Amino acid sequence: MNRLERFFTKSEKIAWRVVEEDSVILDLDTGYYYTLNEVGRFLWESLDGKKKLSAIHKEILDHYDVNPETAKSDILELIDNLLKEGLVEIHESPEEGFSSPATP
Amino acid sequence: MNESKSFSAYNGLILEILRSFYGSTPVSGAITPFIKEAQWGDIFTFLRFHRLLPIAYHVLSGTELWETIPNDFKVGVKQASFENTALILLLGNLMDAAVSALEDARIPFYIIKGPAVALEFYRPGDLRPYTDIDIVIPFNSFSDANAVLNDLGFSSRGRFFTKEYFDSVHFSNDQYPGFCIDLQWESVTSIWTREPFLSSKEVWDQIRLLETSESKHIPVLAPMFLIPFLCTHLVFHRPMALLIHLMDLALAVRDSESDLPWDEFVRWARYKKLGKPVYHSLRWTRDILDVAIPSAVLDALQPGAVEKHLFPFRRIASRHGNMPEFLERAIKFPLIEGWKNKTRSITSYCEMFYQGTKDE
Lengths: 104, 360
Description:
The complex is a heterodimer.
Chain A: E1 7-10, E2 14-19, E3 22-27, E4 33-36, H1 38-46, E5 48-52, H2 53-63, H3 68-84, E6 88-91
Antiparallel strand pairs in A: 1-5, 1-6, 2-3, 3-4
Chain B: H1 11-23, H2 39-49, H3 53-60, H4 71-104, E1 110-112, H5 113-121, E2 132-136, H6 142-151, E3 154-156, E4 168-173, E5 180-184, H7 188-193, H8 201-205, E6 208-211, E7 217-220, H9 223-236, H10 243-256, H11 262-271, H12 275-289, H13 295-301, H14 305-308, H15 313-317, H16 325-332, H17 339-359
Parallel strand pairs in B: 2-5
Antiparallel strand pairs in B: 1-2, 3-4, 4-5, 6-7
């Protein structure tokens, strides 16, 4: 499964807020909370089910001065952790009602 | 008091944080070079006690000053802000559930204290820490509301309370230990004065609906009653004189003062025998944060010459932790108007203590 070509949405069992540059994500079922730094927050806010992870990767490269391969491995590691904790859901196609963004 | 822990030793920074937040102005940090390395730990303890850590992080982070602050302090403040936001998210979720359940059960209610002021006056709302949800209901709805909270997993240990001596009952949740809902039907001051406050018809008639960012509507007090309530909360809550409560009052006055019928406000405060706590609280907000309190209001409410200077707010507010309960009650005691009310306050305290031991 190539996760870069998948779509992701935030789980319905979470609540989240921006705290200055970071994000705080709360799992409402467990009461555990997670924090994301500025780049992690950018990725998190982009998980709207409308664009592929590869598109988000490109946007991160446009916004931040990071090595593309390092960014890709960090994004995949983060998305794996988010999936493992049940904070995001993975989809084969974009959320209904939205068109698929172009693959970078 | 140890000078290194005195409010005056680093009051410049504390005041700058408070005033910067209140006035939405940048913090200058001119005082920071004069703060000794060892004092930052005390500042952290102070900010935590007064529930100001999220505000401090909000005001200080992202400024040039932030880079000059010791790392331990920065990490601690940042972590505390994250934890507070997570707690507020959880409490917000619990509040939504409680609000929906009370609405479904057609129980009249409104929200006060932390969650209400956070929603109305703080931007963002999670800068105002709170640890419980305070819901006011009519006393005759208590058993219905009790059943609603039981269904949500909240239960109370208080079984022996009476309307005469108690103003609220505390509910806790086994799933989230430490998170509470207080069902309240009156203000503590009404127990002493026998004058209805939170339960009075005029208060219920003027309840407003506050729209949240999720387009929900939360019933809250009108400013005419919210401001005197926040005044009494500032001085009679234990612990008393917390700076976050001072900020609540300052923000409420700032956002309401131009529309507030101050003459009526003064008459109401006097009639409810709340002149002293209202006077001192408003004066403190003016003195500390330059809040625009009309002079005529303070003149009309001011107590005698001795009492006027009896409460050294800066000294009380300079503490880093709880003072002994007896001492705090002794300080508050002169703020209760009239000996009859003072006597009732002693009686109610004894009754609460006695009932508390029965509940144990």
